[in-house]
Fold this protein.
Amino acid sequence: MTIVKFSNVGMRYSTGPEVLHDLSFELQQGSFHFLTGPSGAGKTSLLKLLYLGQHPTRGIIHMLGRDLTAVPRRELPMLRRQIGIVFQDFRLLPHLSAFDNVALPLRTSGLAEKDIKRNVTELLEWVGIGDKMEARPPTLSGGEQQRIAIARAVINRPKLLVADEPTGNVDSEIGTRIMHLFEELNRHGTTVLIATHDDEIVTRFRHPQMRLENGTLTEGPKRKVKAA
Amino acid sequence: MAKSKLIPGKYQYDIGLDQGAGAHLVAWSTGLMVFFATLALAVNLGLNAVTQSWVSGLSGSLTVEIKPPVTDEQKAASAETLKKVLWLAKQHPAVEKSRALTREEILALLRPWLGEKAPDSLPLPAIIDITLKKDVDSAALIADLNKIAPDAAVDSHADTLSDVKTLVATARMFVLLLTGVIILLTAASIAGIVRSKLAIHAQEVETLHLVGASDEYIARQFRHHTLKGAMKGALGGVVCMVLAILGVSYMTHTIDTAIFPHVRLMPLEWILIAAAPVLAGSLIAHFTAQRTVMRELSKLA
Ligand SMILES: Nc1ncnc2c1ncn2[C@@H]1O[C@H](COP(=O)(O)OP(=O)(O)OP(=O)(O)O)[C@@H](O)[C@H]1O
Ligand SMILES: [Mg+2]
Protein backbone atom coordinates (compact mmCIF):
# COMPACT_ATOMS: atom_id res chain seq x y z
CA MET A 1 0.00 0.00 0.00
CA THR A 2 1.22 3.48 -0.84
CA ILE A 3 1.45 5.72 2.21
CA VAL A 4 2.91 8.79 0.50
CA LYS A 5 2.82 9.81 -3.14
CA PHE A 6 4.38 13.02 -4.47
CA SER A 7 3.65 14.11 -8.04
CA ASN A 8 5.74 17.00 -9.41
CA VAL A 9 5.75 18.76 -6.08
CA GLY A 10 7.43 22.15 -5.71
CA MET A 11 7.57 24.35 -2.65
CA ARG A 12 8.63 27.87 -1.73
CA TYR A 13 8.46 29.81 1.54
CA SER A 14 6.08 32.77 1.04
CA THR A 15 7.78 34.88 -1.63
CA GLY A 16 11.24 33.32 -1.46
CA PRO A 17 12.85 31.16 -4.15
CA GLU A 18 11.61 27.63 -4.73
CA VAL A 19 13.44 25.32 -2.29
CA LEU A 20 12.05 22.02 -3.57
CA HIS A 21 11.59 21.26 -7.27
CA ASP A 22 9.62 18.60 -9.12
CA LEU A 23 9.64 15.94 -6.46
CA SER A 24 7.98 12.71 -7.58
CA PHE A 25 8.23 9.60 -5.44
CA GLU A 26 6.23 7.06 -3.46
CA LEU A 27 6.73 5.60 -0.02
CA GLN A 28 5.21 2.16 0.50
CA GLN A 29 3.79 0.98 3.80
CA GLY A 30 6.49 -0.60 5.94
CA SER A 31 9.38 1.06 4.09
CA PHE A 32 12.37 2.59 5.91
CA HIS A 33 14.44 5.34 4.24
CA PHE A 34 17.19 7.70 5.17
CA LEU A 35 16.88 11.20 3.76
CA THR A 36 20.37 12.58 3.20
CA GLY A 37 21.92 15.59 1.56
CA PRO A 38 24.02 18.64 2.35
CA SER A 39 22.89 21.32 4.74
CA GLY A 40 20.36 23.60 3.07
CA ALA A 41 19.38 20.99 0.48
CA GLY A 42 15.78 20.99 1.65
CA LYS A 43 15.50 17.94 3.92
CA THR A 44 13.57 19.75 6.65
CA SER A 45 11.40 21.41 4.02
CA LEU A 46 10.47 18.03 2.54
CA LEU A 47 9.63 16.67 5.99
CA LYS A 48 7.37 19.71 6.58
CA LEU A 49 5.37 18.72 3.54
CA LEU A 50 5.16 15.17 4.88
CA TYR A 51 3.89 16.15 8.32
CA LEU A 52 1.37 18.66 6.89
CA GLY A 53 3.26 21.61 8.33
CA GLN A 54 3.47 23.32 4.95
CA HIS A 55 1.47 23.36 1.72
CA PRO A 56 3.17 22.56 -1.59
CA THR A 57 3.16 25.49 -4.01
CA ARG A 58 2.59 23.13 -6.90
CA GLY A 59 2.09 19.47 -7.61
CA ILE A 60 -0.08 16.96 -5.77
CA ILE A 61 0.55 15.04 -2.55
CA HIS A 62 -1.36 11.93 -1.55
CA MET A 63 -1.08 10.94 2.10
CA LEU A 64 -2.55 7.78 3.61
CA GLY A 65 -4.79 7.50 0.57
CA ARG A 66 -6.06 11.08 0.61
CA ASP A 67 -5.37 13.86 -1.89
CA LEU A 68 -4.26 16.63 0.47
CA THR A 69 -5.81 19.38 -1.61
CA ALA A 70 -9.19 17.75 -1.02
CA VAL A 71 -8.89 17.30 2.75
CA PRO A 72 -10.98 19.86 4.65
CA ARG A 73 -9.39 21.63 7.58
CA ARG A 74 -11.47 19.90 10.21
CA GLU A 75 -10.19 16.49 9.07
CA LEU A 76 -6.52 17.45 9.35
CA PRO A 77 -6.21 16.45 13.06
CA MET A 78 -7.32 12.89 12.26
CA LEU A 79 -4.69 12.69 9.52
CA ARG A 80 -1.96 14.25 11.66
CA ARG A 81 -2.57 11.80 14.50
CA GLN A 82 -1.35 9.06 12.16
CA ILE A 83 1.93 10.87 11.58
CA GLY A 84 4.69 10.91 14.19
CA ILE A 85 7.14 13.82 14.00
CA VAL A 86 10.56 14.38 15.51
CA PHE A 87 11.35 18.04 14.88
CA GLN A 88 14.94 19.13 14.30
CA ASP A 89 14.48 21.64 17.14
CA PHE A 90 12.31 19.22 19.19
CA ARG A 91 9.50 21.77 19.75
CA LEU A 92 8.62 20.44 23.20
CA LEU A 93 6.10 22.53 25.10
CA PRO A 94 8.17 24.26 27.80
CA HIS A 95 5.36 24.46 30.37
CA LEU A 96 4.64 20.77 30.34
CA SER A 97 6.60 18.04 32.13
CA ALA A 98 8.38 15.36 30.10
CA PHE A 99 5.44 13.08 30.91
CA ASP A 100 2.80 15.56 29.71
CA ASN A 101 4.74 16.31 26.53
CA VAL A 102 4.82 12.65 25.60
CA ALA A 103 1.19 12.20 26.63
CA LEU A 104 0.07 15.04 24.36
CA PRO A 105 -0.74 13.02 21.20
CA LEU A 106 -2.74 10.57 23.30
CA ARG A 107 -4.67 13.32 25.04
CA THR A 108 -5.49 15.13 21.82
CA SER A 109 -6.95 11.89 20.52
CA GLY A 110 -8.92 11.44 23.72
CA LEU A 111 -7.37 8.29 25.26
CA ALA A 112 -8.28 7.42 28.89
CA GLU A 113 -5.86 8.74 31.54
CA LYS A 114 -5.07 5.32 33.02
CA ASP A 115 -3.97 3.99 29.62
CA ILE A 116 -1.99 7.16 29.03
CA LYS A 117 -0.16 6.72 32.32
CA ARG A 118 0.83 3.15 31.60
CA ASN A 119 1.94 3.76 27.99
CA VAL A 120 3.86 6.95 28.65
CA THR A 121 5.64 5.66 31.73
CA GLU A 122 6.74 2.52 29.91
CA LEU A 123 8.05 4.42 26.89
CA LEU A 124 9.87 7.08 28.92
CA GLU A 125 11.59 4.34 30.90
CA TRP A 126 12.57 2.68 27.64
CA VAL A 127 14.26 5.83 26.32
CA GLY A 128 15.97 6.36 29.69
CA ILE A 129 13.98 9.31 31.04
CA GLY A 130 12.06 7.26 33.62
CA ASP A 131 13.55 9.18 36.52
CA LYS A 132 12.86 12.61 35.05
CA MET A 133 9.23 12.30 34.02
CA GLU A 134 8.14 15.38 35.95
CA ALA A 135 11.03 17.57 34.75
CA ARG A 136 10.31 20.41 32.35
CA PRO A 137 12.19 20.41 29.03
CA PRO A 138 14.19 23.62 29.66
CA THR A 139 15.82 21.94 32.67
CA LEU A 140 16.97 18.94 30.63
CA SER A 141 19.98 18.37 28.38
CA GLY A 142 19.72 18.45 24.59
CA GLY A 143 19.97 14.67 24.40
CA GLU A 144 17.27 14.21 27.01
CA GLN A 145 14.97 16.62 25.19
CA GLN A 146 15.59 14.74 21.96
CA ARG A 147 14.57 11.47 23.56
CA ILE A 148 11.37 13.08 24.86
CA ALA A 149 10.67 14.39 21.36
CA ILE A 150 11.16 10.89 19.95
CA ALA A 151 8.93 9.35 22.59
CA ARG A 152 6.21 11.88 21.73
CA ALA A 153 6.55 11.02 18.02
CA VAL A 154 6.13 7.26 18.51
CA ILE A 155 3.73 7.12 21.48
CA ASN A 156 0.60 6.48 19.43
CA ARG A 157 2.17 4.06 16.93
CA PRO A 158 1.88 6.29 13.87
CA LYS A 159 1.45 4.95 10.34
CA LEU A 160 4.18 7.31 9.16
CA LEU A 161 7.16 8.47 11.20
CA VAL A 162 9.28 11.39 10.02
CA ALA A 163 12.34 12.30 12.06
CA ASP A 164 14.67 15.25 11.49
CA GLU A 165 18.21 14.48 12.75
CA PRO A 166 16.90 12.28 15.58
CA THR A 167 20.37 11.18 16.63
CA GLY A 168 22.04 14.55 16.35
CA ASN A 169 22.36 15.27 20.07
CA VAL A 170 22.89 11.87 21.63
CA ASP A 171 25.91 9.60 22.08
CA SER A 172 26.24 6.57 19.84
CA GLU A 173 24.87 4.15 22.43
CA ILE A 174 21.61 6.09 22.77
CA GLY A 175 21.64 6.71 19.02
CA THR A 176 21.72 2.96 18.47
CA ARG A 177 18.91 2.48 20.97
CA ILE A 178 16.79 5.07 19.15
CA MET A 179 17.45 3.38 15.80
CA HIS A 180 16.36 0.07 17.30
CA LEU A 181 13.17 1.73 18.51
CA PHE A 182 12.46 2.99 14.98
CA GLU A 183 13.17 -0.44 13.50
CA GLU A 184 10.88 -2.04 16.05
CA LEU A 185 8.08 0.33 15.00
CA ASN A 186 8.90 -0.32 11.36
CA ARG A 187 8.55 -4.08 11.91
CA HIS A 188 5.01 -3.40 13.18
CA GLY A 189 4.18 -1.62 9.93
CA THR A 190 5.16 2.02 10.45
CA THR A 191 6.64 3.72 7.40
CA VAL A 192 9.82 5.52 8.48
CA LEU A 193 11.74 8.41 6.95
CA ILE A 194 14.77 9.77 8.78
CA ALA A 195 16.66 12.87 7.71
CA THR A 196 20.25 12.61 8.88
CA HIS A 197 23.81 13.83 8.44
CA ASP A 198 25.11 10.88 10.43
CA ASP A 199 27.06 8.70 7.94
CA GLU A 200 27.82 6.10 10.60
CA ILE A 201 24.10 5.52 11.18
CA VAL A 202 23.44 5.38 7.42
CA THR A 203 26.11 2.76 6.79
CA ARG A 204 25.42 0.70 9.92
CA PHE A 205 21.70 0.43 9.43
CA ARG A 206 21.32 -0.69 5.88
CA HIS A 207 18.24 1.16 4.68
CA PRO A 208 17.82 2.76 1.25
CA GLN A 209 18.58 6.43 0.86
CA MET A 210 16.74 9.34 -0.66
CA ARG A 211 19.25 12.03 -1.43
CA LEU A 212 18.35 15.70 -1.83
CA GLU A 213 20.66 18.23 -3.47
CA ASN A 214 19.54 21.78 -4.09
CA GLY A 215 15.94 20.81 -3.65
CA THR A 216 16.00 17.94 -6.13
CA LEU A 217 16.04 14.21 -5.54
CA THR A 218 19.35 12.83 -6.86
CA GLU A 219 19.34 9.36 -5.37
CA GLY A 220 16.87 6.61 -4.84
CA PRO A 221 14.56 5.67 -7.66
CA LYS A 222 13.31 9.04 -8.80
CA ARG A 223 9.90 8.01 -9.93
CA LYS A 224 9.22 5.36 -7.40
CA VAL A 225 10.92 4.69 -4.12
CA LYS A 226 9.71 1.23 -3.21
CA ALA A 227 9.89 -0.66 0.02
CA ALA A 228 13.35 -2.15 0.61
CA MET B 1 -6.50 19.79 28.41
CA ALA B 2 -3.66 18.25 30.31
CA LYS B 3 -4.35 17.19 33.86
CA SER B 4 -1.20 17.41 35.92
CA LYS B 5 -0.01 14.14 37.36
CA LEU B 6 1.21 15.83 40.50
CA ILE B 7 -1.87 17.83 41.48
CA PRO B 8 -4.91 15.78 40.58
CA GLY B 9 -7.95 17.78 39.54
CA LYS B 10 -6.04 21.00 38.89
CA TYR B 11 -6.06 22.23 35.32
CA GLN B 12 -2.75 22.64 33.62
CA TYR B 13 -2.58 24.38 30.28
CA ASP B 14 -0.43 22.95 27.46
CA ILE B 15 0.43 26.54 26.65
CA GLY B 16 1.88 29.01 29.15
CA LEU B 17 -1.30 31.07 29.37
CA ASP B 18 -0.75 32.00 33.01
CA GLN B 19 2.58 33.64 32.24
CA GLY B 20 3.28 37.09 30.95
CA ALA B 21 2.14 40.67 31.46
CA GLY B 22 -1.37 40.14 30.14
CA ALA B 23 -2.29 37.37 32.57
CA HIS B 24 -4.69 39.55 34.60
CA LEU B 25 -6.06 41.74 31.81
CA VAL B 26 -9.20 39.66 31.39
CA ALA B 27 -9.93 39.88 35.10
CA TRP B 28 -9.47 43.64 35.08
CA SER B 29 -11.66 44.35 32.08
CA THR B 30 -14.42 42.01 33.23
CA GLY B 31 -14.25 43.46 36.73
CA LEU B 32 -14.59 47.01 35.45
CA MET B 33 -17.43 46.01 33.16
CA VAL B 34 -19.35 44.32 35.95
CA PHE B 35 -18.75 47.27 38.29
CA PHE B 36 -20.01 49.87 35.84
CA ALA B 37 -22.82 47.73 34.48
CA THR B 38 -24.08 47.11 38.01
CA LEU B 39 -23.75 50.79 38.76
CA ALA B 40 -25.81 51.60 35.68
CA LEU B 41 -28.39 49.02 36.74
CA ALA B 42 -28.65 50.62 40.19
CA VAL B 43 -29.01 54.10 38.67
CA ASN B 44 -31.70 52.75 36.39
CA LEU B 45 -33.62 51.21 39.28
CA GLY B 46 -33.23 54.42 41.24
CA LEU B 47 -34.57 56.56 38.42
CA ASN B 48 -37.48 54.19 38.07
CA ALA B 49 -38.37 54.44 41.75
CA VAL B 50 -38.05 58.23 41.84
CA THR B 51 -40.32 58.74 38.82
CA GLN B 52 -42.84 56.35 40.21
CA SER B 53 -43.25 58.35 43.41
CA TRP B 54 -43.33 61.67 41.49
CA VAL B 55 -45.84 60.40 38.99
CA SER B 56 -48.17 58.94 41.59
CA GLY B 57 -47.88 62.16 43.64
CA LEU B 58 -48.66 64.43 40.72
CA SER B 59 -51.18 62.45 38.75
CA GLY B 60 -53.51 61.94 41.72
CA SER B 61 -54.23 65.62 42.16
CA LEU B 62 -55.71 68.74 40.54
CA THR B 63 -55.10 72.37 41.37
CA VAL B 64 -57.81 74.98 40.73
CA GLU B 65 -56.68 78.56 40.73
CA ILE B 66 -59.12 81.52 40.85
CA LYS B 67 -57.66 84.84 39.69
CA PRO B 68 -56.97 87.42 42.41
CA PRO B 69 -59.88 89.86 42.62
CA VAL B 70 -59.12 93.59 42.39
CA THR B 71 -62.45 95.37 42.63
CA ASP B 72 -65.06 94.72 45.29
CA GLU B 73 -67.34 93.37 42.63
CA GLN B 74 -64.69 90.84 41.61
CA LYS B 75 -64.18 89.93 45.27
CA ALA B 76 -67.78 88.85 45.57
CA ALA B 77 -67.64 86.88 42.32
CA SER B 78 -64.40 85.22 43.36
CA ALA B 79 -65.84 84.16 46.71
CA GLU B 80 -68.88 82.82 44.87
CA THR B 81 -66.71 80.81 42.46
CA LEU B 82 -64.65 79.43 45.33
CA LYS B 83 -67.80 78.29 47.05
CA LYS B 84 -69.09 76.61 43.87
CA VAL B 85 -65.82 74.82 43.23
CA LEU B 86 -65.61 73.50 46.78
CA TRP B 87 -69.24 72.42 46.64
CA LEU B 88 -68.68 70.57 43.34
CA ALA B 89 -65.53 68.89 44.66
CA LYS B 90 -67.40 67.70 47.73
CA GLN B 91 -70.17 66.13 45.61
CA HIS B 92 -68.03 64.71 42.83
CA PRO B 93 -67.54 60.91 42.78
CA ALA B 94 -63.94 61.25 41.48
CA VAL B 95 -62.76 63.35 44.41
CA GLU B 96 -61.17 61.87 47.48
CA LYS B 97 -60.82 65.19 49.34
CA SER B 98 -60.51 68.86 48.58
CA ARG B 99 -59.32 71.89 50.45
CA ALA B 100 -58.75 75.60 49.87
CA LEU B 101 -55.24 76.70 50.70
CA THR B 102 -54.90 79.18 53.57
CA ARG B 103 -53.56 82.69 52.99
CA GLU B 104 -50.25 81.66 54.67
CA GLU B 105 -49.84 78.68 52.38
CA ILE B 106 -50.49 80.79 49.33
CA LEU B 107 -48.05 83.42 50.51
CA ALA B 108 -45.47 80.70 51.07
CA LEU B 109 -45.95 79.51 47.48
CA LEU B 110 -45.58 83.04 46.17
CA ARG B 111 -42.60 83.97 48.34
CA PRO B 112 -40.05 83.45 45.57
CA TRP B 113 -41.74 86.21 43.62
CA LEU B 114 -42.98 88.51 46.34
CA GLY B 115 -40.19 88.28 48.88
CA GLU B 116 -40.65 88.07 52.66
CA LYS B 117 -42.84 91.07 53.12
CA ALA B 118 -45.98 90.96 51.02
CA PRO B 119 -48.38 93.81 51.84
CA ASP B 120 -51.56 92.67 53.60
CA SER B 121 -53.63 94.43 51.02
CA LEU B 122 -52.22 92.36 48.18
CA PRO B 123 -54.98 90.52 46.40
CA LEU B 124 -54.24 86.82 46.31
CA PRO B 125 -55.62 84.09 44.11
CA ALA B 126 -57.65 81.35 45.68
CA ILE B 127 -56.14 77.92 45.30
CA ILE B 128 -58.01 74.68 45.81
CA ASP B 129 -56.11 71.44 46.14
CA ILE B 130 -58.13 68.45 44.98
CA THR B 131 -56.98 64.90 45.69
CA LEU B 132 -58.49 62.37 43.32
CA LYS B 133 -59.61 58.88 44.14
CA LYS B 134 -57.29 56.14 42.92
CA ASP B 135 -57.35 55.35 39.19
CA VAL B 136 -60.15 57.69 38.19
CA ASP B 137 -60.22 59.71 35.00
CA SER B 138 -59.99 63.40 35.80
CA ALA B 139 -61.38 64.53 32.42
CA ALA B 140 -65.07 64.60 33.50
CA LEU B 141 -64.24 66.53 36.67
CA ILE B 142 -62.17 69.07 34.72
CA ALA B 143 -65.08 69.56 32.29
CA ASP B 144 -67.51 70.10 35.19
CA LEU B 145 -65.15 72.55 36.89
CA ASN B 146 -64.77 74.54 33.66
CA LYS B 147 -68.56 74.71 33.34
CA ILE B 148 -69.30 76.07 36.80
CA ALA B 149 -66.17 78.23 37.04
CA PRO B 150 -65.17 79.36 33.56
CA ASP B 151 -62.69 81.92 34.95
CA ALA B 152 -60.80 79.46 37.10
CA ALA B 153 -57.69 77.77 35.81
CA VAL B 154 -57.60 73.99 36.30
CA ASP B 155 -54.11 72.47 36.33
CA SER B 156 -53.94 68.71 36.09
CA HIS B 157 -50.09 68.79 36.06
CA ALA B 158 -50.23 66.96 32.75
CA ASP B 159 -47.47 69.11 31.23
CA THR B 160 -45.12 68.77 34.16
CA LEU B 161 -45.87 65.08 34.30
CA SER B 162 -45.07 64.46 30.67
CA ASP B 163 -41.89 66.56 30.95
CA VAL B 164 -40.71 64.50 33.90
CA LYS B 165 -41.59 61.28 32.13
CA THR B 166 -39.71 62.27 28.98
CA LEU B 167 -36.70 63.38 30.98
CA VAL B 168 -36.53 60.16 32.96
CA ALA B 169 -37.15 58.00 29.91
CA THR B 170 -34.28 59.77 28.13
CA ALA B 171 -32.01 59.31 31.14
CA ARG B 172 -32.87 55.63 31.34
CA MET B 173 -32.28 55.16 27.62
CA PHE B 174 -28.92 56.80 28.01
CA VAL B 175 -27.96 54.59 30.94
CA LEU B 176 -29.03 51.53 28.98
CA LEU B 177 -27.03 52.65 25.97
CA LEU B 178 -24.04 53.23 28.21
CA THR B 179 -24.37 49.71 29.63
CA GLY B 180 -24.46 48.34 26.09
CA VAL B 181 -21.36 50.29 25.15
CA ILE B 182 -19.55 49.08 28.28
CA ILE B 183 -20.39 45.46 27.45
CA LEU B 184 -19.33 45.84 23.81
CA LEU B 185 -16.05 47.50 24.77
CA THR B 186 -15.30 44.74 27.25
CA ALA B 187 -16.08 42.04 24.72
CA ALA B 188 -13.82 43.81 22.22
CA SER B 189 -10.97 44.09 24.71
CA ILE B 190 -11.30 40.42 25.69
CA ALA B 191 -11.21 39.48 22.01
CA GLY B 192 -8.06 41.61 21.66
CA ILE B 193 -6.41 39.96 24.67
CA VAL B 194 -7.22 36.49 23.31
CA ARG B 195 -5.85 37.42 19.88
CA SER B 196 -2.60 38.72 21.31
CA LYS B 197 -2.23 35.59 23.47
CA LEU B 198 -2.68 33.50 20.33
CA ALA B 199 0.00 35.55 18.59
CA ILE B 200 2.42 35.26 21.52
CA HIS B 201 1.96 31.50 21.67
CA ALA B 202 1.73 30.94 17.90
CA GLN B 203 4.61 28.45 17.88
CA GLU B 204 3.14 26.34 20.68
CA VAL B 205 -0.27 26.46 19.01
CA GLU B 206 1.32 25.24 15.77
CA THR B 207 3.04 22.40 17.60
CA LEU B 208 -0.28 21.36 19.16
CA HIS B 209 -1.89 21.34 15.73
CA LEU B 210 0.96 19.26 14.28
CA VAL B 211 0.69 16.59 16.97
CA GLY B 212 -2.99 16.23 16.12
CA ALA B 213 -4.83 18.69 18.35
CA SER B 214 -8.14 19.93 16.97
CA ASP B 215 -9.11 23.59 17.02
CA GLU B 216 -11.59 22.76 19.76
CA TYR B 217 -8.87 21.19 21.91
CA ILE B 218 -6.82 24.39 21.67
CA ALA B 219 -9.82 26.69 22.05
CA ARG B 220 -10.84 24.88 25.23
CA GLN B 221 -7.65 26.01 26.94
CA PHE B 222 -8.05 29.66 25.95
CA ARG B 223 -11.72 29.52 26.90
CA HIS B 224 -11.05 27.99 30.28
CA HIS B 225 -8.27 30.45 31.01
CA THR B 226 -10.41 33.43 30.00
CA LEU B 227 -13.37 32.17 32.00
CA LYS B 228 -11.21 31.78 35.10
CA GLY B 229 -9.92 35.33 34.79
CA ALA B 230 -13.37 36.72 34.04
CA MET B 231 -14.95 35.05 37.06
CA LYS B 232 -12.28 36.42 39.34
CA GLY B 233 -12.71 39.90 37.89
CA ALA B 234 -16.51 39.82 37.94
CA LEU B 235 -16.53 38.71 41.55
CA GLY B 236 -14.18 41.55 42.40
CA GLY B 237 -16.37 44.00 40.48
CA VAL B 238 -19.52 42.97 42.34
CA VAL B 239 -17.76 43.08 45.71
CA CYS B 240 -16.57 46.62 44.93
CA MET B 241 -20.07 47.61 43.86
CA VAL B 242 -21.65 46.21 47.03
CA LEU B 243 -19.05 48.00 49.13
CA ALA B 244 -19.76 51.24 47.25
CA ILE B 245 -23.53 50.93 47.80
CA LEU B 246 -23.04 50.13 51.47
CA GLY B 247 -20.65 53.04 51.84
CA VAL B 248 -22.97 55.55 50.19
CA SER B 249 -26.02 54.31 52.08
CA TYR B 250 -24.09 54.45 55.36
CA MET B 251 -23.19 58.05 54.69
CA THR B 252 -26.59 59.19 53.49
CA HIS B 253 -28.95 56.68 55.14
CA THR B 254 -31.12 57.01 52.09
CA ILE B 255 -29.82 55.20 49.11
CA ASP B 256 -31.32 51.79 49.66
CA THR B 257 -34.82 53.10 50.28
CA ALA B 258 -34.52 55.43 47.31
CA ILE B 259 -33.42 52.68 44.99
CA PHE B 260 -35.63 49.95 46.34
CA PRO B 261 -38.42 51.97 47.94
CA HIS B 262 -40.97 49.25 48.37
CA VAL B 263 -38.78 46.22 48.04
CA ARG B 264 -37.45 44.45 51.07
CA LEU B 265 -35.08 41.80 49.84
CA MET B 266 -34.20 38.54 51.53
CA PRO B 267 -30.51 37.58 51.80
CA LEU B 268 -30.99 34.92 49.12
CA GLU B 269 -32.37 37.52 46.74
CA TRP B 270 -29.43 39.79 47.42
CA ILE B 271 -27.12 36.90 46.59
CA LEU B 272 -29.01 36.28 43.35
CA ILE B 273 -28.81 39.95 42.39
CA ALA B 274 -25.06 39.90 43.05
CA ALA B 275 -24.61 36.59 41.21
CA ALA B 276 -26.36 37.75 38.05
CA PRO B 277 -23.64 40.21 36.93
CA VAL B 278 -20.92 37.66 37.77
CA LEU B 279 -22.70 35.09 35.66
CA ALA B 280 -23.36 37.55 32.84
CA GLY B 281 -19.77 38.83 32.83
CA SER B 282 -18.35 35.32 32.83
CA LEU B 283 -20.64 34.19 30.02
CA ILE B 284 -19.74 37.19 27.89
CA ALA B 285 -16.02 36.53 28.41
CA HIS B 286 -16.45 32.81 27.76
CA PHE B 287 -18.29 33.19 24.46
CA THR B 288 -16.08 36.02 23.27
CA ALA B 289 -12.98 33.89 23.88
CA GLN B 290 -14.48 30.87 22.16
CA ARG B 291 -15.59 32.83 19.10
CA THR B 292 -12.29 34.70 18.80
CA VAL B 293 -10.09 31.62 19.10
CA MET B 294 -12.08 29.56 16.66
CA ARG B 295 -12.10 32.38 14.14
CA GLU B 296 -8.36 33.02 14.47
CA LEU B 297 -7.48 29.31 14.31
CA SER B 298 -9.56 28.83 11.19
CA LYS B 299 -7.37 31.44 9.49
CA LEU B 300 -4.30 29.25 10.05
CA ALA B 301 -3.18 26.85 7.35
N1 LIG C 1 11.04 29.15 7.28
C1 LIG C 1 11.77 29.42 6.19
N2 LIG C 1 11.54 30.54 5.48
C2 LIG C 1 12.24 30.82 4.36
N3 LIG C 1 13.21 30.03 3.89
C3 LIG C 1 13.49 28.87 4.54
C4 LIG C 1 12.78 28.52 5.73
N4 LIG C 1 13.27 27.33 6.17
C5 LIG C 1 14.22 26.97 5.30
N5 LIG C 1 14.37 27.88 4.32
C6 LIG C 1 15.27 27.79 3.18
O1 LIG C 1 15.00 26.58 2.49
C7 LIG C 1 16.19 25.95 2.07
C8 LIG C 1 16.20 24.52 2.57
O2 LIG C 1 16.25 24.51 3.98
P1 LIG C 1 16.03 23.23 4.86
O3 LIG C 1 15.93 23.64 6.27
O4 LIG C 1 14.95 22.46 4.28
O5 LIG C 1 17.42 22.45 4.61
P2 LIG C 1 17.99 21.16 5.33
O6 LIG C 1 18.36 20.22 4.25
O7 LIG C 1 17.03 20.68 6.35
O8 LIG C 1 19.30 21.71 6.03
P3 LIG C 1 20.00 21.20 7.38
O9 LIG C 1 20.69 19.93 7.03
O10 LIG C 1 20.96 22.26 7.71
O11 LIG C 1 18.95 21.03 8.39
C9 LIG C 1 17.33 26.79 2.61
O12 LIG C 1 17.85 27.54 1.55
C10 LIG C 1 16.71 27.70 3.64
O13 LIG C 1 17.33 28.97 3.59
MG1 LIG D 1 17.05 20.55 8.40
Q: What stands out?
A: Chain B is about 70% helix and 10% strand.
